[in-house]
Amino acid sequence: MKKVLVVEDEPSIAMLLQYNLEKAGFSVITANEGNTGLQIAMEEKVEMIILDLMLPGMDGMDICKTLRQEKIKTPILMLTARDDEFDKVLGLELGADDYLTKPFSPREVIARVKAILRRSKMNEESIEDTEEKTNIQIGDLTVFPEKYEAELAGAKLDLTPKEFELLLYLANNQGKVLSRNQLLDAVWNYDFAGDSRIVDVHISHLREKIEEDTKRPLYIKTVRGFGYKLEKP
Q1: Which fold has domain 3-127?
Q2: With pLDDT > 70 as the criterion, what percentage of the chain qualifies?
């Protein structure tokens, strides 16, 4: 039985989520404030975290950021009452796997949880694949799939999980032109209704960490009107 942590301060929503998750065959742990939720997420073996954005104690953004900094890769579904594009992009940037705006139907939550767990399993199997275990060298850039790390000229890059996954996908397809929709599907595995801004934001952040001059990138090139490609300088 897969264990899900629900961090939600509204009792009615927490109870609704717990009831429907248990009905769908999951084991559920709940926390009604941020600090407790973070402690459980770091100490318990859970397969999934459903995390409210606005929480007493520590908010969902800080919890997500802390978990990813601690290299805890448990999938996160973030919940919020605000339909704010900035919050959506920032949450995904910090390492959340998916995003739902309240109000939502229990059926939709269960469908998202199952989809995220399925994708997470596929990603783990992909990373374990022999081809992906091989370190990738592109100019002074080195990608280490097994360690979930990358270096530039021997210096470790400070990448978020999504930035690394985007870089790894680009590196595994070195020289190929990849559309924004291809990148959305491969890295986020979620239909953002063609919202390419999520890809553009992450590409911009990658360039800030890799390129000497972000206006004249040597590694990550823009193919106008289509997408991006990673190539050797």
Answers
A1: Rossmann fold (3.40.50)
A2: 88
